TrEMBL record:
Keyword Methyltransferase: yes
Record-level GO BP terms: methylation
MF GO annotations: S-adenosylmethionine-dependent methyltransferase activity
Organism field: Pseudomonas parafulva
Keywords tagged on the record: Methyltransferase, S-adenosyl-L-methionine, TPR repeat, Transferase
Protein name: Tetratricopeptide repeat protein
Domain CheR-type methyltransferase stretches: 1-240
Length: 423
């Protein structure tokens, strides 16, 4: 396929595993950039890409989906204040606390760090936040620090009244918060970062590792370990815990914080042998929603359902709601191939959606492709961290691979998500 050369370019340039975001998403970005650069076809666009560093960056930014908002995963920021206070006491005034947000996207995360610490009573001179992202345009937007309503989600928005000023239909962040944060364009795989060895007491690197293949995950993790002080804390995304557990890190023990520290070498034990069955002893699974297909997905044998006569393929002219409904009908009827094709068509035509990745995960899961199922469930959780079905099925998958601790954590999160939805 002619797209393969573009996939290799993205892997070599930014370490992207195209399968982690889906080839359809990259193909969609290629079509956008091909049209924007007035290239007649992919061959002409490839030549344009090779000759222009500006176009290379434009393609990277078209592939990257900066889905972020202030105080995303609020429990992390509650834990941050506690851990930062402890670390500052250990430093005993020797220097300020140093924190890193990587990737920082359009600034919501590093500014949330700044607001959280200021609201917890930290003096401005007590900490500094460095923020890096591979996208110069995202950094430019972060420097403006003007945000629309999409950056403010959840029910607790009191911080907006404290730290922002309304400007037309947007909100301007206060200078007091902004001056704590230093922004720069940088690539996590840039060798120049080695000069910052051991510099940071706390690193936020959330929802990045899931986009890389295993060798690149290892490279990035080594960079993060290098940047982190020996006694430092690494905050990650909800879907990345099982990755860090395999790489020598352990959770700090604060629920829902997604915070990890270095594993004590003396406490490291051999990984458990695979569990004979998928179910683990933990909080009971929530009942599936009406759209949750494949009741056999939790069976240890992971055999596909019996063949059912496929439904007609949805028409190409369907809008987003109709296509989602068609995917549900195809999946629930057992028309696996058509359901998968419809999911892929949805991702080519519309913005990524957690439920679509959940269906793709379920389709892969029941067909016995655990690797693909793992990737799709993690994508769903990146887009919707409390997606109960994705949490439960990922928990079952981890349990079948011997990661019973990771499975229990995910089951607890799923049960909590289900209780919150009922309220």
């Amino acid at each position: 396929m002619s797209e393969q050369r573009f996939f290799r370019f993205l892997q070599e340039r930014i370490g992207l595993d195209v399968e982690s975001v889906g080839a359809s998403m990259v193909e969609r970005a290629l079509r956008q950039r091909c049209a924007a650069s007035a290239a007649g076809d992919l061959d002409h666009y490839w030549l344009c890409l090779q000759q222009s560093t500006v176009e290379q960056q434009a393609l990277i930014e078209a592939v990257i989906v900066p889905e972020t908002w202030f105080f995303r995963y609020p429990e992390s920021f509650t834990a941050l204040a506690t851990l930062a206070r402890k670390r500052l006491a250990e430093l005993a005034g020797a220097r300020p606390l140093r924190l890193l947000s990587l990737p920082c996207s359009t600034g919501e995360e590093p500014y949330s760090i700044s607001m959280a610490l200021l609201d917890a009573g930290f003096a401005p001179c007590a900490f500094r936040v460095d923020a890096m992202d591979i996208s110069p345009s995202s950094i430019a937007r972060a420097e403006l620090a003007v945000y629309g309503r999409n950056s403010f989600r959840g029910s607790d928005l009191a911080f907006r009244d404290r730290h922002f000023e309304g400007v037309n239909d947007s909100y301007q962040l206060s200078e007091r918060v902004r001056r704590q944060v230093s922004l720069e364009a940088a690539n996590v795989l840039d060798p120049a970062l080695r000069a910052r060895s051991g510099l940071y007491d706390i690193v936020f690197c959330r929802n990045l590792l899931i986009y890389f293949d295993i060798p690149t995950q290892q490279r990035v993790f080594e960079v993060l370990k290098l940047l982190l002080h020996d006694d430092g804390v690494l905050f990650i995304g909800p879907a990345e815990g099982s990755l860090l557990a395999r790489l020598g890190m352990r959770p700090v023990g604060i629920a829902q914080s997604f915070a990890y520290v270095r594993q004590d070498p003396a406490s490291v034990t051999a990984p458990p042998s695979p569990a004979p069955v998928v179910r683990v002893a933990a909080t009971p699974a929530p009942p599936p929603r009406a759209t949750a297909w494949a009741p056999n997905a939790l069976q240890a044998t992971r055999t596909p359902p019996a063949p059912i006569r496929p439904l007609p393929e949805p028409a190409a002219s369907e809008g987003e709601p109709e296509l989602l409904a068609s995917i549900a009908r195809l999946a629930n009827s057992g028309a696996s191939d058509q359901a998968r094709a419809s999911c892929e068509r949805y991702l080519r035509q519309f913005a990524p959606k957690a439920q679509v990745y959940y269906w793709l995960g379920l389709l892969s899961d029941t067909q016995g492709d655990a690797g693909e199922a793992l990737k799709h469930y993690r994508k769903a959780l990146y887009l919707e961290p409390q997606h109960a079905e994705a949490l439960m099925h990922l928990a079952a998958l981890l349990a079948s691979q011997g990661d019973s601790a990771g499975a229990r954590r995910l089951q607890a999160r799923a049960a909590k998500a289900d209780r919150e939805s009922e309220r």
